[in-house]
């Protein structure tokens, strides 16, 4: 059972206790709020995460208005889904890629920021192999899993050709220069970046070293539409769904995008890195 489900279950139990203390049964509370009784049941058993408005309405109905701020703070914590990689990868590295492919298919607008690596959806197979091999070693995964994971990552890239979608990729100049793979592999990766940046579905922006940063870009993050922020740490995957959290990361993305080189300027910077690093 995931930690996110346990958190929802605990929150639902707290709401149920408030309902019971107010003398309502589930049917009565649902009628009072104008909800289906099944909604009350799903919330109380942790099968559904409530919205901010739902919590405010629930608290008002059971006479717990003074607890609204505390309930909303707990709700924010519930909406941060934390899943340790040890649990996340029980089904293998490739399964994790397939899970993200399903998410890619659902959304229409992806904003991805990576400060130190080329984003997975833009990686060549060889670059991905080196990156995922390092991940496999860190997390004690079998080397053969890397092959399946690279294949799954390459299949994810089909989404880039779907003209109903929009992809904004924001990286730093460091991501172009860091040797997370052999030099020849990095050169091929940068050539791939130049080629794919011309797709109509893709916008590429690069924060150059000389840019005046509005904020320190301490970690990467991916924003799916305007409903989910996904962050990978060394130990876990974080999924943020709270509206305030999503809004914060949208603001951070726009701040960094605003100081980045875009379009032809971004491609010229990539070409300059290739020339300085490999053609000089």
Protein model, in words:
With 280 residues, the protein is of the alpha+beta class. The chain folds into two domains: 3-78, Orthogonal Bundle (434 Repressor (Amino-terminal Domain)), CATH 1.10.260; 82-279, 2-Layer Sandwich (Endonuclease, Chain A), CATH 3.30.870.10. Helix content is 55%, strand content 14%. It contains 13 helices and eight strands. The protein has helices at 3-21, 26-33, 37-44, 52-61, 68-78, 85-88, 93-106, 125-138, 143-156, 173-177, 183-196, 243-258, 263-279, and strands at residues 80-84, 109-114, 166-172, 202-207, 221-224, 228-232, 236-240, 261-262. An eight-stranded mixed β-sheet has the order 1-7-6-5-2-3-4-8, sandwiched between helices. A hairpin with a 3-residue loop joins strand 5 (221-224) and strand 6. Helix 2 packs across helix 3 (37-44). The N and C termini lie far apart (55 Å). The model has no long low-confidence stretch (mean pLDDT 88).
């Amino acid at each position: 059972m995931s930690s996110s489900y346990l958190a929802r279950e605990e929150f639902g139990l707290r709401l149920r206790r408030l309902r019971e203390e107010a003398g309502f049964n589930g049917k009565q509370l649902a009628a009072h709020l104008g909800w289906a009784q099944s909604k009350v049941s799903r919330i109380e058993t942790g099968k559904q995460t409530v919205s901010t408005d739902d919590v405010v309405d629930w608290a008002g109905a059971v006479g717990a208005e003074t607890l609204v701020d505390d309930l909303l703070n707990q709700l924010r914590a519930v909406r941060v889904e934390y899943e340790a990689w040890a649990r996340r990868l029980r089904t293998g590295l490739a399964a994790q890629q397939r899970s993200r492919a399903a998410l890619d298919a659902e959304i229409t607008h992806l904003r991805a920021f990576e400060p130190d690596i080329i984003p997975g959806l833009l990686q060549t197979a060889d670059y991905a192999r080196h990156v995922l091999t390092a991940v496999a070693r860190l997390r004690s995964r079998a080397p053969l899993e890397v092959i399946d994971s690279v294949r799954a990552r390459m299949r994810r890239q089909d989404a880039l050709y779907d003209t109903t979608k929009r992809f904004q990729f924001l990286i730093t100049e460091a991501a172009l220069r860091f040797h997370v793979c052999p030099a020849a592999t990095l050169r091929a990766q940068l050539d791939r970046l130049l080629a794919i940046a011309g797709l109509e579905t893709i916008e590429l922006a690069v924060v150059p070293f000389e840019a005046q940063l509005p904020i320190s870009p301490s970690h990467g993050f991916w924003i799916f539409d305007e409903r989910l922020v996904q962050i990978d740490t060394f130990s876990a995957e974080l999924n943020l769904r709270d509206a305030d959290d999503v809004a914060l990361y949208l603001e951070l993305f726009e701040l960094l995008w605003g100081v980045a080189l875009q379009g032809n300027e971004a491609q010229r910077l990539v070409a300059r890195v290739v020339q300085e690093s490999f053609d000089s």
